[in-house]
Structures are given as structure tokens and as C-alpha cells.
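Here is one chain, start to finish.
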Amino acid sequence: MATVVEQRGTVDGIATRWHEAPVPAGATPTLYVHGVPTAGWEWDEFLARGGGFAPDLPGFGASDKLASFDYSIDGYARWLRAFADLRGLDRFALVVHDWGAVGLALAQAIPERIERLVICAAVPFLPGYRWHRVARMWRRPLVGELAMGFTFKLTMGQVLGRSNREPIPASFLDQTWEHFDHGTQRAILKLYRSSPPARLAEAGERLGAVDCPALVVYGARDPYIPPEFADAYAAALGGETVARVLPDAGHWPWLDEPALIDEIVAFAAGKAG
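Its structure:
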């Protein structure tokens, strides 16, 4: 197991924290992109087993939460490209979860640099998706602000916990809550409000250009994203793709099925699939 270390620097004008671990000699590095409402730490076990990089996206974790940042699919895609360039990731594997789907906008812009792709319970950049109940509240002005204001650690734990078979680890909730401040709440609201269903479908129109080997994994118990989007992603991508739905896993499927961590790490490294 490699040692995961915390790094800090400036990426495209954003003070940024990222977690990283050494990549084996000669191996392709992996870029991990987290979703809402977590941060780069959610990938620590993956990094320890295969190395790579996991930034806190702007607005999340310990990275800057500037009001002026473009909290949209395009804004995050531009920022991720700057991060990849800064870290010297000329070619890399990409692993995305939840709103880490913004990494798919990057992949469509630079498909020639993506060696392998893993989509894990990601927001569908596809036609036919409709936001879940909590997201619909967040998308409504004033209602979203009130919902954020009345979110406490107990209620957050209840919302996160209902998505998985196994109880959410206390450390997972603690780290999520630690940085769930006004800046993160604002980032979430802006991101959701910039992304109606039509924009999500538009954001995936060039998925066919991403022709690297891909693995798509969803949990059948996911209350936020219907698992049929695993097959929909597989159909939209341009390369050989394996789609799996884990029958007894939730939105963070590796918490219910820990063996999935090794599977994803191996696939990203080109050692499986």
C-alpha cells in the first residue's frame, strides 16, 4: 500500500488541495474526480492501492470556494484540464463518481489523452434523466437556500446513509460535514442550477469520441441515479465498455462492495478488463 499525502498549490488561480500517492514506475497515472458533497479524500483507499491524483474541486473540501468561480460543467472541465496540465498528466486514466461526471466533459475535449475510463454512479450526461427530489429542491431559488440552511450533521448522515446497504462510516460523515460550509453549499446550488436535464444531455453529446476501454459501475440500490444509466453510458461511449450493476450496492458502491476498489484500481491501471 502506498502512502497518500496531501498537497497544495494554485491551479488556474484557485488555491487547491489534492491527495496523491506514487504511481508505479512506467504506469499510467489515474485522475480521480469526486462528486457532491465529498472531496478528494473519498478516493484515499484507491490512491493507496494504485497511486494517482484526487483533487478537491473548487468549492469543495479545502480548495478555494470563490464566489467568482464558474460552478458549471464547463467551468469544472476547464479547471480539471488546468489541473491535469499542471501535474504533467499527458495521458491518464480517469475515474469519476457522482458529479465527478464533469470529468467526462474534459474527456470529450481531449479524448486522445484518456487511456482508460471508469464511470461509477455518475450523474448521467445523457437524455432521459430527471433530477432526484433533493436536487429538485436545490435547483429552486430560496427553497434551495433554506434546505441548505436546515441541513445539520444528523440529517446529512440520514440522507447519505439511506443510499447504501452498509452504514456510512463515521469517518465518511465527519469528513463530509467538516467542509460543508457556506462556500460548498453555494457551489452545490450553482452547479445544480446550471444543469437542467437538457444541459446534461447536451454535455454528453460527444461521448462517442471517448474510445478508450471503459468500465461503468452502478448500484441497484442507488436512490439518486437509476441503474439503467449504466447501460446507457456504455451505449454512448465509443470504445469497448463493460457495464455492471451491483444488485445490493448503493450510491457509493465500494462502501457496500469493498472488492470494487481493487477492481477499479486494476482496470484503471490496465491490469483487468
